[in-house]
Amino acid sequence: MIPGMRALRPLRLLVPLVAIAVALALFLALGFLALTFVNGAPQGNRYCDAGYGAVGPLGRGRAGTTAADLSDEQRRNAATIIAVARDMDAPPRAWVVALATAMQESTLRNINYGDRDSLGLFQQRPSQGWGSPAQVLDPVYSTSIFIDRLLDVPSWDELPVTVAAQTVQRSAFPEAYAKWENLASDLVTQLANVVLPAGCGPAALLPEGVARTAISFALGELGKPYLWGGTGPDRYDCSGLLMRAFQAAGINLPRVSRQQFYAGGHLPVRQAQAGDLLFLATDPRDPATIHHVSMYLGNGQMVEAPYTGEFVRVRPVPWEHDELVAFATRPGTTPNYRT
Question: Which of 72, 232, 276, 287 could form a disulfide with 328 if both were Cys (CB 3.0 to 4.6 A apart)?
Answer without folding.
Answer: 276
